[in-house]
Amino acid sequence: MIQQASDSTDNSKWQPRIVAFLCNWCSYAGADLAGMSRFAYPAAIKIVRLPCSGRVDPMFIIKSFEQGADLVLVSGCHPGDCHYTSGNYHARRKLLAFRELMTFLGIDPRRFKISWVSAAEGAKWSSLVKEITAEVIALGPFENYSKLRAGGIAE
Amino acid sequence: MSTNTAITEPLQRAAAELLSEGKVAVVIGYGMDGDSSFSPPLFAREPQEAERLVFDDRCFGNLSVYLSKDHIRRMGKIGIVVKGCDLRAVNVLLREHVVKREDVVLIGVPCAGQGDPLLGKCSVCEQRNPQGCDIVVGDPVEQPQIDAAQRYSEAADIDAKSIEERWEFWSGQLSKCIRCYACRNVCPLCYCKRCITEKTVPQWIETSAHLRGNIAWNVARAFHLTGRCVNCGECERACPMDIPLGAINQKMAQLMDERYDFQSGLSSEDKAPFTTFNVDDPETGIL
Amino acid sequence: MNSAKVDEQTLYQAATGWLKSAVDILLGAGVEVIAPIETDPGVVELAAVNSSEAVALDYVNARLPLKRLLFPVTEVLLEYEKQSDGDVDVKSEPAASPKDVVVIGARPCDVAALEALDKVFHWDYDDVHYSGRREGTTLITFACTKPGPQCFCTSVGGSPHNSAQSDVLVFLEDDGRALLQVCSDKGAKFVDQLGDVAKPAPAGSKLPAPPEVKARFEPEKVKQWLDESFEDDFWADVSLKCLGCGACSYLCPTCHCFDIVDEANWHSGQRRRNWDCCSHPMFTKHASGHNPRPDQASRCRQRVMHKFKYFPERFGQIACVGCGRCTRACCVGQNLVSILTDIETRAKGGANCDA
Q1: pTM listed for this prediction
Q2: Chain B / chain C CB contacts < 8 angstroms
Q3: Cβ-contact B131, B224 below 8 angstroms
């Protein structure tokens, strides 16, 4: 799937890079279950495990873009299921506001996804990754940000 | 420039009294400087210095920034001149336990707006008459009704642009940033002893003034102020590169207002939106 | 940097429309032209122009000083990249030969400030990044006609007609004509390039009188007091309102302090030189946590001492050209002239702190 879509972009070598910040208790376990259940999903996603979605600082997202991510995903426990009772409720407020800030500044909000995936939702994880990978392939490389790689010595 | 004698005279008297009775160690107010295009901060520590205090239509600064400064706090109890807009910042400092109410004497000044022409923030000011001060000098001024559309009009101008236009606009604006940190240092609510941009392990924010670093810095600044910023406009006024920082803060304030019915600094008792939550908060946009 | 002494009276006159012709000739010759353009309403910045149309003529001074063209706010010193065999490839040479640049329309104070920068960047080490750009730059300065209220060049040895470090000093007339005073070989080359656009001025041509900029203090008196006043309560008083931002230093045409940072990931990185500023607490903070300048008082003192005591002692000149940007930019109205006049009063035996 990645190969097909890549062929249609200008740069045939481009492979999408997705950085995913997953909470340890639900989404990471969900991704684990997808693996154990042998649900295939695209390898474009690079997972960073965190204790809780409430741990995500917007700087994680900005740094990911700076380092070449075409899409960033934050995934946590469903509301009501937080291992720490309320981390995901705080994350919900902050991350949705952060997406609005991105939008206001013209940083394409489609490049930042938020999801709730439980430890039992291996199938959801698999289909979610397929879905967002397809979307980022359709969007193409995040050129606004990749162009920001600062100029060289002769700048 | 026109000195408001109806406020300046009672202000000088009140400040001299506070100082001579030893109720405060310093009164922070506005003074005069012939070279300056505005009335800069003045620190009166002796009763006779109070006669150099003024109030006019060039008192742009939000003096509450000094309440968190160690070298000012060391002086002792602080008397401070606050306009209604400045008082909102004081409320946040109280709410965040940076300042104790008993450590300050708030000298409120009714204010019909600053600047000629009026500053943008003053034309939509809803706090012309400061509430809850220890002393109020001068008579109340008329308070026009302001609606939400007026309150957030600066953000609306940018919201009207397409996402590509916004990127174009902000990458142009933020390219100008020279990372002098005037926006941070003038902000009454940027009181961290060590700013995230000064932290190097890891270095979340690149300190170079290239667009990549400038976006990271300005995003961090805006987000740290979300739900806290009182839109006093000091960051934008201080910016030597004239970056419209106020619009970003206004956008985030609008969001907090619309989503959580919250305006920062109207009370010193309320809770900032990011310190709390509701189980049924909006969820649109989560997969 | 002006290698040859040219007769100060080498005057040329240029007819209305000369600026447009000059820009076109330079652009046609493939030279990069930097000139004042209005970038924000009422704000002028020195920037590359593609045509003479954009050039602004009515301005006190550019928002950012000329120094940024020679000593940019951020620049790459070297780059490194990990190779597949594990070695690291380091590129540290600056661009082979910097382009020829002609800066038209900087103010005399900004140009004179380069004397201080030249001394620093050629002091114990020849800074190739700075000097490469400096050598390739020709400075066509516009004499001041309307100084701003915060200007004080005459107090620090300058003047609205100061030709120091300029290659050509241009006196604009209201009708678009101009007198061009050639001050160096580079300037002579520039005028030569203009061909018929600039003709030798008739014998007896006179330069206009400079506009008045009142002298506000004597730097020698200021230094006398500074020599004896490292420990003085004045510094705590005068720095009370300073919030410690970098606006004054970053906008200063002579401030030249920088920080060197690495920006890298696991594979590659850049070493950059960025403007830095003695008002920031981090400027002197040690890794141990100790800060030898622990408060704003000592940092404000450093800024004044550096400009009016240390720099003169080391390099024989004041590190201030009186452009007034620091005062214009300061969000709490810190006024350098007030500070210096206060100091002068103290030097004379008074003690009236008004700042």
Answers
A1: 0.92
A2: 101
A3: no
